[in-house]
Amino acid sequence: METNEFWENSTKLARMEDSLPKQIFLLPIKVRPVFPGIITPLIVPPGRFIQSIEESSKGAGFLGLILLKEDESDLPSEDNIFQIGVVARILKKINLPDGGMNILVNTIQRFKINSIHTKEPVLIANVSYPEEELGTSKNNIKALMRTLLILTKELAQNNPLFTEDMKLTMMNVNEPAKMADFVCSILNLEKEEYQSVIEAVQINDRLEKVLLFLKKEIELVVLQKKIQEQINDKIDNQQRQFFLREQLKAIQQELGAGEDKTELKYEKLLERLKSIPVAEEIITEVDREIDKFKNSDPISSDYNVIRNYLDLVDSLPWEKPSEKDVNLIHAKKILNRDHHKLEDVKERILEFLAVHKLNPKSKGSILCLVGPPGVGKTSIAKSVAEALGRKFFRFSVGGVRDEAEIKGHRRTYIGAMPGKLINALKITKERDTVILLDEIDKMSQGYQGDPQSALLEVLDPEQNSNFRDHYLDLPFDLSDVLFIATANTFEPIPRVLLDRMEVIQLSGYITEEKVQIFQKYLWKKIFEKNGLNPDSFSMKKETVALLINSYSRESGLRGLEKTFDKLVRKIALKQVLKEKYSKEIREKDLVEYLGPPPFVDDRMTIPKVPGTALGLAWTNAGGSTLLIEAVLIPGKGGLTLTGQMGKMMEESANIALSFVKNYVNNDSLFEKKAIHLHVPDGATPKDGPSAGITMATALLSLVTDQVIAPGFGMTGELTLTGEVLAIGGLREKIVAAKRVGVKKIIFPKDNEKAFQEIPDYVKRGVTFYPVTRFEEVEKLVFPKSKGKKK
């Protein structure tokens, strides 16, 4: 609708209302009032005032539009409204789907509330219509009117938001009262300021108020224009710099040194970093490096250094990782699919994942999987990554001597590179990667620094949120990375580093477990690796057990996998050469394909002569058995030790000798004789404190000329007074004993708590004897002994 037509219609409708009602339905409105002489739509929310509109429409359709004092007040409507409003007539109404209503009204004239006639269910007021008065002379009104027109035109020229229709309307409105109302309606005022104009019945008062508000608006527009000009000046300066850069770029292209695509790539990097909530230091440093790159000569040495640095920054995942849902049922299926048994390990992993699901922002602990080689430490870490839906990255820290492998080189050095952690995130391009630190126990200190100390910052959840790689030299958040470390033993790991990790121990497998893992996992894997059909041949459980016990007795599965891989390769060769072979592998076939078994019998596990005893030991490769031998040689009570024993075992041997001398109380026996104590397999170093009772038993067997009872293996630390103290690695020692057929195991009573935690299937078939003193050991292994010698 054209503006002239709008005012004509308003005037016609006003003439039609020669007599306005003395009682009207009130409709409270928010934010700002509606001035007389305007046709405007209003949206009425569902509620009691919908009924007011319906009731009003049954008559002449008059509504009293009254402004609320407070938009969100708990007061009743009649106590929260101003006393002067504008009467309007409903032209059209449309029901809305939510129960509200959209109405088109024409505002006519101001009214004043004399009293509230009805409060419920609708709000009806007794009203009067104040007459407009000049309040001053006509000349003053005319002067005020001209001033209003001049200032309004000035505002219209400086404010681009004023449309041509508004400008035309201002030129055509000649009535001072309507002009004041119209100008006020287009200004941006506070609610109370609008209402003060509504309440100004005298025309001169209304014009003066509108002039005051108009003057403030013009001052605001002038200030806004000044700010805009300042901004434009800055933009012009930036454009000038841009044109100069473009000219420089054109010159470089003429010289054959243009790098348009590269510079565009780095500009996008800067925009990307600004859109991410990263530290201001990062944006400043990258911006500085980009400027250096643009101004560097491509043939200079700094050019490629800066370029490689910016490429690294561009490839890193600075964005916050997306939240990934942790499905514990799915995670449990993955762990059971990939690993046999290890129930305590799986339970701890699921607990870790459950905590992560309940609190994704939890820093948590760093997991450290400790166990002999081949028991599945790395594959468990892969399963955790799959269960979390994250990428997996493994790098071995075994043998790392240089701190820069962890924290990178400083860029001042030639050939500087980032550390392996930053490089891992560069490759995976995800900030919540699962990173496996393999063989963390084999790190060592070199002259280039201590890498173990460098890991302290990496593995500390309180510090790694601002990790600084020496090459990157910017704070990077590693708190979303899940670190999992593996080790064969935790003794070499520094205590301060071990404190930052939660150790989960994985024990070796017994023969029954190996048979099941072989049939469930290794069988198909090895066949696929060698390109054979799993139906090419078969093996009974007895043959698999023989393969394990005769060819692969280590704690883990790698030896078994290599041995069976060798067997399958032999069959593959026969298939390719089309030679005949047995479809069922038996014992004789194992000897044919694999040669004589390295573990022939139990000759070195059964004490058969006085001076021998079988001990149980724990090594980095799992549990093992040690047959300790002792003989009398010419001498005067001395002790000769052989078999690559470490300092702790030498101490245990001396303690055992002193104890036995005191125990048998026979000085004449040692006057002309010395003792030679030997641990076979002398090429292998051995150490540990748990061979005390075994050495004492072997010495007692020697000096009393008794053979210990068959079938016993033992472990325990001995004191000079005969106390048997606790040891470590009990499960591994039990597994090693079962592997060689030992059915009776003596162990310290102090280890009963650890003994109870060992699964029953591991202990099945073995009799256990917890002891607290050596006298109990003597009664078990020397049943015919009469006790301590006098």
From TrEMBL:
Binding residues annotated for ATP, in chain numbering: G371, P372, P373, G374, V375, G376, K377, T378
Root EC class: hydrolase
GO cellular component, one term: cytoplasm
Catalytic activity field: Hydrolysis of proteins in presence of ATP
Gene3D superfamilies: 1.10.8.60, 1.20.5.5270, 1.20.58.1480, 3.30.230.10, LON domain-like (2.30.130.40), P-loop containing nucleotide triphosphate hydrolases (3.40.50.300)
UniProt keywords, alphabetically: ATP-binding, Cytoplasm, Hydrolase, Nucleotide-binding, Protease, Serine protease, Stress response
The protein's name: Lon protease
Native source species: Leptospira bourretii
Gene name per UniProt: lon
